[in-house]
């Protein structure tokens, strides 16, 4: 039995990755899975409930305060709130200890959660920390979180070389591993992707949570420059929602679309579960992140469906996109270089096709879910043996 502590109920990158891992463990091993999740609702929780109906008692879900760590945790009120969360986590686990007697180890998904450390300590089992972030600012938080990972983990697994380099503070020896996220090709509904597509235009897409660091405002600068250079027969679909605490940014983003007269070139689409339909509707995926992506799952998803990628040359994207083969890697925040790369692909359908094919091959070589999760089992085997069930 594995106990997983996760800090979100959504269905974005890290959510998909941990849910897919749980699904693999339940379908391919005889292990059970327990989830500790925050209270509330979300698409990720809905998906887990569907899995629960399939796997029964082998998948158990508890919703409680998972001791999330954010920037506010480094002030006096934040510290008090975190200590309160830790106390309630201790009380909950101690009160229900018999329910977790079969847990062999605790797996914490992302460094923004401290609850896994508490649970592993109470149950006296190994703790595995899965690192999916690169946090450089504030500096105190960056150092603190990496020290926590180092001091309170039996094993540390990063989802890219970039996150692995970030988390290794003061060395770390053999306890650190890198396992790229495994990705299943997103499902495509027969014919339904046509609702996102305009066949008279080259379709570009940006998929993910709307935020400053993901490059959404920067994207509008790129689009404006493309239009000013005479590119007219294209459209960008921006798929995703803003976090509840970032709604002002979303309003500013919409205002900028209006002020730059880009309404006919940019379409906003709220987050959709059937993201495969979006990828099949676009010709080029854009990932213009202003800060290093810890991994870059959307790039892998697009490549799995044969879509070329133009992305920022930083972080985990450097592991994913092969420059000049499956797309282009461009210096972050450089409008000119993004415009040139996008323009080359917009002008050449055969190049888009060949790069998409190369991306699909690269996905099969390096990023399938089975490759990833078999590597997880190999690493987990250092602390617990699994009975792998082959098809």
From TrEMBL:
Residues 200-359 form the Glycosyl transferase family domain. The keyword Membrane applies. GO terms for molecular function: hexosyltransferase activity. Pfam families: Glycos_transf_1 (PF00534). This is Glycosyl transferase family 1 domain-containing protein. It comes from the Bacteria. The keyword Transmembrane helix applies. The chain crosses the membrane at residues 73-94, 106-129. CDD domains: GT4_PimA-like (cd03801). Keywords: Membrane, Transmembrane, Transmembrane helix. PANTHER family: SULFOQUINOVOSYL TRANSFERASE SQD2.
């Amino acid at each position: 039995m594995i106990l997983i502590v996760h800090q979100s109920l959504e269905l974005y990158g890290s959510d998909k990755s941990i849910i897919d891992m749980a699904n693999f463990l339940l379908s391919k091993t005889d292990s059970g899975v327990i989830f500790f999740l925050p209270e509330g609702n979300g698409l990720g929780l809905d998906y887990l409930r569907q899995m629960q109906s399939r796997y029964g008692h082998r998948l158990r879900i508890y919703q409680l305060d998972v001791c999330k760590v954010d920037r506010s945790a480094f002030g006096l009120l934040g510290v008090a709130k975190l200590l309160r969360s830790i106390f309630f986590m201790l009380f909950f686990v101690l009160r229900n200890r018999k329910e977790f007697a079969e847990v062999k180890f605790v797996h914490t998904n992302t460094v923004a959660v401290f609850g896994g450390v508490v649970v592993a300590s109470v149950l006296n089992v190994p703790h595995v920390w899965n690192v999916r972030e690169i946090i450089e600012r504030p500096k105190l938080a960056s150092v603190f979180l990496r020290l926590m990972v180092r001091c309170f983990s039996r094993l540390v697994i990063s989802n890219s070389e970039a996150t692995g380099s970030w988390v290794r503070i003061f060395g770390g020896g053999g306890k650190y591993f890198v396992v790229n996220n495994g990705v299943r090709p997103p499902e495509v509904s027969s014919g339904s992707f046509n609702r996102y597509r305009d066949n008279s235009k080259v379709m570009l897409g940006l998929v993910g949570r709307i935020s400053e660091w993901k490059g959404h405002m920067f994207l509008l600068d790129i689009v404006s420059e493309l239009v000013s250079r005479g590119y007219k027969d294209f459209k960008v679909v921006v798929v995703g929602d803003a976090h509840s605490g970032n709604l002002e940014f979303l309003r500013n983003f919409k205002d900028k679309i209006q002020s730059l007269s880009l309404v006919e070139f940019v379409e906003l689409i709220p987050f959709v579960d059937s993201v495969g339909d979006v990828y099949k509707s676009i010709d080029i995926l854009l990932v213009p992140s202003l800060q290093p992506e810890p991994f870059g799952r959307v790039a892998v998803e697009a490549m799995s469906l044969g879509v070329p990628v133009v992305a920022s040359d930083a972080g985990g994207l450097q592991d994913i996109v092969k420059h000049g083969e499956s797309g282009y890697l461009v210096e972050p925040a450089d409008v000119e270089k993004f415009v040139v790369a996008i323009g080359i692909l917009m002008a050449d359908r055969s190049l888009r096709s060949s790069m998409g094919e190369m991306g699909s091959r690269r996905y099969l070589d390096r990023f399938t879910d089975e490759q990833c999760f078999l590597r997880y089992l190999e690493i987990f085997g250092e602390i617990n043996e699994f009975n792998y069930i082959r098809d």
